[in-house]
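Cross-check.
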Amino acid sequence: MTSRELFYNEVLLQSFGASCRLIEASPVSGGCINHAVALKSTCGHYFLKWNNQEMSDMFLKEMEGLKVLRSVNLVSIPKPYQTGIIDGKSYLLLEHIEGNNRSPQFWSDFAQRLASIHSNTAEQFGLDHHNYIGRLPQSNRWDINWIDFFIEQRLLTQLKLGQKNGYISSALMNKFEALFKKLSGLIPSETPALIHGDLWSGNYMTGSDGLVCLIDPAIYYGNREVEIAFTRLFGGFSEVFYDSYNEVQPLLPGFEDRTDLYNLYPLLVHVNLFGSSYLSGITTILSRFVT
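Predicted model, tokenized:
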């Protein structure tokens, strides 16, 4: 038995006891941060992701986010079973989702379920714990003001990290500071909404019922427009999705003009994760709003 098979068996042992043993492990592609594998065992079929020991808190917070989304019981979410550390590897063991062909109602159903999730609200923006966006820490300190929250805990956090990493120049920071002064006049008030937080094409899949299953959340209570804007960043979803969402929970007038403002956050995250190639998109957006 290989060292990895021993690791998989130990994960199963810690999660389900000695009667659960590995039958087969199949690597799963698609992620750019963690290792992933599908495990067929004597007690079921599971999905395992793992990384260095230092990433254990990231898996713990992902598990908490999955539990929150499962608790609202509005969309399919993989059940998290166990997280821990074995032989210097941190891991998260999840329910294995058997994919299927998409239902003809996939996009309209997806939109309606997401709108229902967004109807869950809180008194302030934020969350009762911090979490991660990708592998980067995401602050969720409660704030009654969305603009302040967006500036201080989303944009400035990434900008300061970008400065530390050598990606954000003083000139670019000055443009952001100028933008911050304008945001209150550009972004309308919204009630805090529970959002997935990292909703792009890589973080949903088709479940066994042909309908959407959400994965890899970075949840918090935010402005729901941030969520819909994020879905447009890397190719976008079907127009049926956007039409259906607006039928259930219409976006305020001018949303299309605000989309780029919201997407400054995930673009800054990508700068800090993957490098300066994402800076051109940021400077293009800033040029629209700051002279």
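The CA atoms of residues 133 and 244 lie 27 Å apart. The mean pLDDT is 95. Passed to J.P. for a second look.
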